[in-house]
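Hi R.,

As promised, here are both runs. First protein below:
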Amino acid sequence: MARSSSRQAERLKYFLFVLFFQSFGSAYVAKEEFAPELYSLEIKSVKENADSRQVTFEVRGRNLQSTTQIKATKAKAEKDSVCEDFDTNFNFSLIENSESTKAQYLLTVPKSAKGVIYFCLPRQVRENSALVPPIFKGDFIRWYHQGPDLTYNLPSE
């Protein structure tokens, strides 16, 4: 009888241990209502240089701040899926951000770049861990795909 209750107690401790680490050992994304998001993209101008192409474009969305960065990927994915394969050949520079729903950027790409590019925006992620209290851990950024419909097709030479 004592052995049976001892096993049950061990199982209960194991269950609580697993439940505790599932609840507190994972990452979570900052509230969606504060995350930047793109709804549309409009090309304003394209200028050709000797070795690069400069594309001025305007995006509309929500929570677009002057600090909002954009990254590009060649990987097609669903909206809000994690972006991981960034193309470092693309350089984005903010031109103007007059309101949180509209911004204008300059995209510089090598002339040799071809194909469709997709856009990714950052979201703040906090790491929850029972082993390391939040006071010792900073926030970090995870990049999220803006969907297969928000694209720019790089023209062939």
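And here is the second one, sequence first, then its structure tokens:
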Amino acid sequence: MANKDFELGDLVWAKMKGYTPWPAQIADPPLNGKTKKGRHYVYFLGSKNYAWISEKDINHHSESYIPPANKKKSFLLRSAIDEIIALSKEKPLKKTLNLSIDNDSSTNLQELSNYVVDQRSEDHEKSPSSDESETSVFEVSMKEDIHLSSNGESSNIQEELNSCVNPPVVKSKRKRHLTDESEKSNLVDIPNSKILKFDDSNDMTSSKNAENVPGSSAECSTKLQGSADHVEESNLADQLRQYVKPTMKVGFIGVGAMGQRIVKILLLSGHQVTVYNRSPEKCNDSIKAGALRGETPADVVKASDIIFSCVSDASAAKSLLVGREGVLKGLEDSNAGDIYKGYVELTSVDPESALEIGECITGKGGKYIEASMIGTRQDAEKGTLKIVVSGDETLYRNCLSCFRAMSKRVIFTNSDIGCSSKYRIIYNMIWGSSYGVLADALSFTKVLNISPNDLLDSLKISGIDFSKMGNAMLDRMNSTITNNTTITNTLKYQQKEMTLAINLSDTLNQPVHLAARANEMYKLAKSLGAAEEDVSAVILGAE
């Protein structure tokens, strides 16, 4: 068999036993890993998993693997195709050997999208690691009132923010004294490429499980997930350090309930972290764990390449920026020429505030992204948050080693500041409404003389997989939106069941608030002629 001459970073299609060929990239083996003769270590695009694959089951990427435009493709597949096309433009394709690695070439293309540029090169100071991660849904809840007034100065925060968003049009050269290397940044400007969405989920399509993804946790042991709720810290540290290659000095402002856990996971993964909190004593645990202390936000900025802000709300996030020792002062003293700092807003803020903060940061020469966290404090502690990112693409890619340590899934939406906040708000609206519906149902059980605990237990042991059920609902909604619906349950039937529930609640004088509102949406959709359509056509009643 001819040698296929694979090199580090080559785009390929790799086939793992039991799976269809998968878009991948030739990767650098683990530091402690042993080279396997006749095999190559590959990174599966999208699933963010690695595996040793036999050379005979790997082919160089070719446009011939891309399915026809008229072939039905999932959103993830479409995103993945866009990604591999974008990546292939950056380097010429190698001659593809006509080897059939799957009897059904029409099913060759299930790729998840993610920015994969294997940046584990020797010159890591100019090529930051592109280790990627994944993320979750929850608003940062840190009970901290952060105001930069420790030096006694009282300033109008909003006025200062306005002045930095709309600065006077006066050009002047700022004198820089960057004698301290810690004030410089290792961030690398990456050439422009198409901004892609990617989901780090292990589901190739909505109807397939993680087990259907080559290199997934079912096949490889590279997922950074601890066993259930009991994750041995030493084991987690070993896992993180094996698959996360820190390349940046990290600053972290706001070491509260959520922030402290994120700092811990960054330290476990080998990152150098400098922390600041308005209440210095809250930094003590992080300092004991190996973090450095910054006396002011400006100090943290000067000591770091990437600065994360994780405070209680938009007001606290804005207050960090201003003042004689605020973030903006640190940026002003650090940025010069091609050197810049990156600022990541983790705080749960509204889209307008995200945009305002971003304008202040970029106005001082920094780069900015907002990264909305979805998940719990426990997720933060285990590194299994989910994160939705929008903003500067270069900074996003430079943050990947941090995100990989922090999260289980990450989605880059686009470069529009505020988009991440909008996603988070919608996600939390869905979760909040779901809790409301469950509360409705549990209250209803009481007047029906049914034990709420028994209902919950019956749901748990009924064999219903709520994860699959949720994915099925999303599939149906997507099909309705794209006018490609297969009827699974008619809208009129579901509305009839809703009516029965409403009537019973009226009889017992027990309101079911959200169910009643949902029923009105069903009735409206029905009146618009969707009675015989799939139940997902209820969306017509919401428009």
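A quick note on the second one: The two ends are 60 Å apart (CA to CA). Let me know what you think.

Best,
J.
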